Amino acid sequence: MWSITLNHMVDMTASALDRVFRALASEPRREILRRAAQQPCTVTQLAEHFDMTLAAVSKHIRVLEEANLLSPTHEGRLHWCRLNPQTLDPARSSIEALRGFWNERLDALEQFLVGDRSVVVRHTSRRRPGRR
């Protein structure tokens, strides 16, 4: 298994990064993160904003905790959720690397399409051996 070191000296394995992206793939989980980013919330407070059972919200929270996107704190019977924003840094870096890759490819395609079209004609006019 490989690992990557990115901003803030975060060392994250590929499976940890996969857990982050899996957690972010769900709109309810992204909404939970948005709410936890504003202020720490209890599970009950978070559940009030969703049309689902407390158990369903708890499962979403568990996925976010397993991805280390939320930090749980227990005070008596209250289960508080706090955002771990630094966990998003490797995901952001991964997306930025992909964005750079595709921007380069699309820029090259644009230059090709705007540039010298005789190259296209020259290549398309050649026939493959055995074809008419």
Walk me through the topology.
Elements: E1 3-6, E2 10-13, H1 14-24, H2 27-38, E3 41-42, H3 43-47, H4 54-66, E4 70-75, E5 78-83, H5 88-114, H6 118-125
Antiparallel strand pairs: 1-2, 3-5, 4-5
Helix pairs in contact: 1-4, 2-4
Written overview of the protein:
With 132 residues, the chain is α+β, with helices and mostly antiparallel strands. The chain has one domain: Arc Repressor Mutant, subunit A (Orthogonal Bundle), CATH 1.10.10.10. Helices cover 58% and strands 17% of the residues. The protein has six helices and five strands; from the N terminus they run ββααβααββαα. The strands form two sheets. The chain has a three-stranded antiparallel sheet with strand order 3-5-4. A hairpin with a 2-residue loop joins strand 4 (70-75) and strand 5 (78-83). Helix 1 (14-24) runs antiparallel to helix 4 (54-66) and helix 2 (27-38) packs across helix 4 (54-66). The longest helix is centred in the last third of the chain and has 27 residues, at 88-114.
Q: Any idea what the shape is?
A: elongated
Show unreliable segments: 1-10, 121-126
Q: Could you tell me the strand content as a percent range?
A: 15-25%
Helix content: 55-70%
| Structural class designation | alpha+beta
Largest sheet: 3 strands, antiparallel
Short description:
The protein is an alpha+beta fold. It has helices spanning 14-24, 27-38, 43-47, 54-66, 88-114, 118-125, and strands spanning 3-6, 10-13, 41-42, 70-75, 78-83.
Describe the structure using short key phrases:
single chain, 132 residues, alpha+beta, Arc Repressor Mutant, subunit A, three-stranded antiparallel beta sheet, two-stranded antiparallel sheet, 6 helices, 58% helix, 17% strand, elongated, disordered N terminus
